[in-house]
User: What shape does this take?
Amino acid sequence: MKKLILIGIILAGMTGYTQADANKVISDVTSAPVKLHNHIQSEVEKAKEYQKNSWAGAKAQLLRLKAKFIKN
Assistant: This one.
């Protein structure tokens, strides 16, 4: 019986938090494609920057290796 009362109190408390605002839901759904596009663009820019830094590091490493074995 105590468990049943406790569950009833918890459910009654949660109902106030579970009611969704229709305008908020609509705005969230309509803004989702824009947010997704911005996220993808951000990730593409991060990948480009990482690749640029990675290739620069690889080039420097190759030049150091070359300098060790090929003496002018």
Remarks:
- The chain has a mean pLDDT of 84.
